[in-house]
């Protein structure tokens, strides 16, 4: 793939590694150095054109590799340059390989879910005119040595049939583990544990500060156990003792007999939410005859006894005998 600028001067090595910053690599001594902004713009042009060519070869509706995508993700792209052919003295690009770490949920042989973060093959393209010349294997092997991984430890995102045949031919990767996502993993993927993600900078600082600080940590305060909450009753049905105490009426009203039969029409209950507690039945009014009978049966007061003893009319027994005589006899005397 040819470009209108000098690719050989822009990318001095045969395989150039570009990260998300898309900065131009260090230049050879003795070469002229153009403006830095122009070099970065040329690198972005190369990445965009390679992404378009890869999408066209895979029949994709839109490119999955571009300069804007590279700058927004922590991916790495390996660019292979043609050093033999120098059309117009500017060089050419053979292909590229884009990789990156992704957090995935994959299934193992027992169909159990596993959270891993492997190195993934995200895009791979070799120019159609230079395929079957060993350039793809050269680029792929360089990436394996640079990233220090084995072929069966990789996860491939939407691999084409050409890529699957390439992996089977050069790395003997044939048996796949079925997945529910678009990634393909091969047998032996779970043979090695994948490297966990690096801890954050803040967590590293806190751990270092805790290791350097000799001050012992304060003991943790032990909180009292929480009491179990009892059943909460509504206010209207709660127990109120002062309503349950029956007030005893004064004497002699407390001697009046109570009615044995309940009233035929009980008092209406409150229609509000939660009725008030039931009060005891009220004592009925005492009739006048019962009140007089109870007064006759009461013992006389000491003062009344003294008055009866000093009465010249005689004793009470004599008065009862005289009062029991018929009226005709009393009128004689």
UniProtKB/TrEMBL annotation:
Its EC number is 2.3.1.108. It comes from the Eukaryota. PROSITE patterns: GNAT_ATAT. Its main location: cytoplasm. It is an enzyme of class 2 (transferase). It catalyses: L-lysyl-[alpha-tubulin] + acetyl-CoA = N(6)-acetyl-L-lysyl-[alpha-tubulin] + CoA + H(+). Keywords: Acetylation, Acyltransferase, Cell junction, Cell projection, Coated pit, Cytoplasm, Cytoskeleton, Membrane, Transferase. It is found in: Cytoplasm; Membrane, Clathrin-coated pit; Cell junction, Focal adhesion; Cell projection, Axon. Residues 226-243 have a biased composition (Basic and acidic residues). The modification N6-acetyllysine is found at residues 56, 146. Autoacetylation strongly increases tubulin acetylation. InterPro entries: Atat, GNAT_ATAT. Acetyl-CoA binds at residues 124-137, 160-169. Residues 209-221 have a biased composition (Low complexity). Residues 196-288, 303-333 are annotated as: Disordered. Residues 1-190 form the N-acetyltransferase domain. GO terms for biological process: dentate gyrus development; microtubule cytoskeleton organization; neuron development; NLRP3 inflammasome complex assembly; positive regulation of NLRP3 inflammasome complex assembly; regulation of fat cell differentiation; regulation of microtubule cytoskeleton organization; response to mechanical stimulus. Belongs to the acetyltransferase ATAT1 family. HAMAP family: mec17. This is Alpha-tubulin N-acetyltransferase 1.
């Amino acid at each position: 793939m040819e470009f209108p600028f000098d690719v050989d001067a822009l990318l001095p090595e045969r395989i150039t590694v570009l990260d998300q910053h898309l900065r131009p690599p260090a230049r050879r001594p003795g070469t002229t150095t153009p403006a830095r902004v122009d070099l970065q713009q040329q690198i972005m042009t190369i990445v965009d054109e390679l992404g378009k060519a890869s999408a066209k070869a895979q029949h994709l509706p839109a490119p999955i590799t571009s300069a804007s995508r590279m700058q927004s993700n922590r991916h790495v792209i390996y660019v292979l340059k043609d050093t033999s052919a120098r059309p117009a003295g500017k060089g050419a690009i053979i292909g590229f390989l884009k990789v990156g770490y992704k957090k995935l949920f994959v299934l193992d042989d027992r169909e159990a879910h596993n959270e891993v973060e492997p190195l993934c093959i995200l895009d791979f393209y070799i120019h159609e005119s230079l395929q079957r010349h060993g350039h793809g294997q050269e680029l792929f092997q360089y990436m394996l040595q640079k990233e220090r991984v084995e072929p069966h430890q990789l996860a491939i995102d939407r691999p084409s049939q050409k890529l699957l045949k390439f992996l089977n031919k050069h790395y003997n990767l044939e048996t796949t583990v079925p997945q529910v996502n678009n990634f393909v993993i091969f047998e032996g993927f779970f043979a090695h544990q994948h490297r966990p993600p690096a801890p954050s900078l803040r967590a590293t600082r806190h751990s270092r500060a805790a290791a350097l600080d000799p001050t012992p940590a304060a003991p943790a305060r032990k909180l009292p156990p929480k009491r179990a909450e009892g059943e909460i009753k509504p206010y209207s049905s709660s127990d109120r003792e002062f309503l349950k105490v029956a007030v005893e009426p004064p004497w002699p009203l407390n001697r009046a007999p109570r009615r044995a039969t309940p009233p035929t029409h009980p008092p209406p209950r409150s229609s509000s939410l939660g009725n008030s507690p039931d009060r005891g039945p009220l004592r009925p009014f005492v009739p006048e005859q019962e009140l007089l009978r109870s007064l006759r049966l009461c013992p006389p007061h000491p003062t009344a006894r003294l008055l009866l003893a000093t009465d010249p009319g005689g004793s009470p027994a004599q008065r009862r005998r005289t009062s029991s005589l018929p009226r005709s006899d009393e009128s004689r005397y």
